[in-house]
Structures are given as structure tokens and as C-alpha cells.
Write a structure and sequence with these properties.
The chain is globular and about 65 Å long. Strands 5-6-7-8-14-13 form a six-stranded mixed sheet. Strands 1-17-2-3-4 form a five-stranded mixed sheet, with no helix packed on it. Strand 7, helix 7 and strand 8 form a beta-alpha-beta unit. The chain has 275 residues and is an alpha/beta fold.
Length: 275
């Protein structure tokens, strides 16, 4: 009887142990093209750090990020936590000062009573937080317009027309927005690319299927937990994020993730036909 119990228990323990991160960080590569782009541009997306400790001077992260040769660093929310002192988050920002960094708030930052002070601290590190209107920049010959959409409680807290008014040009438009489930809003938003996080990859993933079990505010087996999604003529890229556990629950078959997104020029089919 004991043997019959021990063998399944040992097998279950082995399966669980195989799925634990054990210090691993995945680096996932995606590529998206647009006729608005003139040259290849590499974005590194760092979502949902939750002020996680990644070693002295955050070297476990930076030693992976720097060799990727990013042109820009994008942080779509939950860099910080409510009940931590931001030590690791600010250390990471300081280590990445060589790159243009764009940041938007996540739900954990929006819950903080000291949010204005936190945003001041993040801006003082050199990070861009263009919340009230998009920021126009030029990078490697590319003209970009970047907006950080604050993470409010509900999707209907936003009116699509009000979001669209924060953009001002026909440049390649990038919007950092923490919650990937706000599909109706994104379908009505006039931008080219949405960068998101929040779902933590579903926390526990089913091996081989890449299907997450549960996500905050999205329930069981949520659709939007990772990867590239087509939304009404635009793309949404979701990072599984960097926190090692959520409310004490460790990740399973779902390592922390750095996303590398290469934006590349793409010939407009209409222009190609006319030529």
C-alpha cells in the first residue's frame, strides 16, 4: 500500500520539479513588420518585475539584456509592488540608463497611495512616462510616437476617442498598456502596436500547449497570456513577465521571460503594385 502511494507521489514531485524555473529566464524573439518603418529596430520588453531580486546590481537580468543590443527598453507595468521598497526596480532602471526606457503603470503601482512620488522617481531615473499625450521620437531613421496608458481598474474607464486624442501624428504608434484583456478598447485604438503583460503567462502552463491556467481578472484558461496577437489591423505583444511568483504561488512550466521584439520595414503592398 505504501509503495503504491509513494510511486505516484514521487512521479508527481518529479513532474513538478521539472517545471520550476530554477533560476532560468527565457528570452523569446518575435518579429513584426510595418511599411511605416525605415530600419530594423529592436525593443526589449521587461514586464511585471514586481521589484523581484535578480542578484547583486540585478546582474542576472542585465547580463541577459545588454548582449541583446536593444535600441529601446519597454516596461509595460508592474515594475514595482505595493509593499516593497523599489530597491531592485530602481537598481534595474539605473543599470539601463544607456538605453531609452519607456514605462507605463500596472495595477500594483496604481494601487499605491504614493504613486505621484513613484512616478517622479521613475522619471528621475531617465525613463519616459508619456501618459497624458504620446511622445514623438526618432530612432535609427524611424519616426515613432509612444504612449504610456495608465492602468486603471476597468476597461470602460477609458473612452477610445480620448485615448486616440493622445496621439498626434501618423508615425508608427506604440502604446504600452498593462492589461492584455482590454480587447474592445484596443480594437478601437488608433495605434500600430500594443505592448502588455499582467497575465504572467497564466502562472502555471500546460507543457507543450503553451496554455496558461489562470490570469488576474481573466479567470481560468485565459486567451491572452503571451505571444503576438492580431487585433483589428494592429499587433499586441504580451510578455509573460519577470516575477518569480504571484501571491506566494511559484511559476510552473512558465519561466520568467524577456521578450525581444524586432520591428522591421515592410513594403506596402499597394505601393509595390503601383511600382
Amino acid at each position: 500500500m505504501i509503495k503504491k502511494i509513494l510511486i505516484p507521489a514521487a512521479a508527481a514531485a518529479a513532474v513538478t520539479a521539472a517545471g520550476l524555473p530554477n533560476g532560468r529566464i527565457d528570452v523569446t524573439y518575435y518579429e513584426i513588420g510595418s511599411p511605416k518603418l525605415k530600419a530594423k529596430l529592436r525593443l526589449v520588453i521587461l514586464a511585471d518585475l514586481h521589484d523581484e531580486d535578480y542578484g547583486k546590481q540585478m546582474e542576472q537580468l542585465t547580463e541577459k539584456i545588454i548582449p541583446l543590443n536593444p535600441d529601446m527598453i519597454m516596461i509595460p507595468g508592474d515594475l514595482c509592488e505595493e509593499k516593497k521598497n523599489d530597491e531592485h526596480s530602481m537598481c534595474l532602471l539605473n543599470r539601463l540608463k544607456a538605453y531609452p526606457v519607456f514605462y507605463s503603470t500596472g495595477n500594483h503601482e496604481e494601487h499605491r497611495p504614493d504613486l505621484p512620488d513613484l512616478l517622479s522617481k521613475i522619471r528621475a531615473s531617465g525613463a519616459h512616462v508619456p501618459e497624458t499625450e504620446a511622445e514623438c521620437i526618432e530612432m535609427k531613421g524611424n519616426e515613432l510616437e509612444i504612449l504610456s496608458l495608465p492602468c486603471l481598474k476597468k476597461e470602460y474607464d477609458y473612452i477610445p476617442e480620448d485615448v486616440n486624442r493622445r496621439f498626434h501624428t501618423d508615425r508608427y504608434r506604440i502604446m504600452l498598456s498593462h492589461r492584455p484583456s482590454w480587447i474592445d478598447l484596443y480594437n478601437s485604438t488608433e495605434c500600430d502596436l500594443i505592448l502588455s503583460g499582467h497575465a504572467h503567462g497564466g502562472q502555471w502552463r500546460i507543457p507543450a500547449l503553451h496554455r496558461g491556467l489562470i490570469a488576474p481578472s481573466a479567470g481560468f484558461f485565459p486567451k491572452y497570456t503571451e505571444g503576438v496577437h492580431e487585433l483589428n489591423g494592429k499587433k499586441m505583444v504580451i510578455s509573460r513577465g519577470l516575477t518569480k511568483k504571484t501571491h506566494g504561488v511559484i511559476r510552473l512550466y512558465n519561466n520568467p521571460e524577456i521578450v525581444v521584439l524586432d520591428l522591421i520595414p515592410e513594403v506596402n503592398n499597394a505601393e509595390e503594385t503601383a511600382a
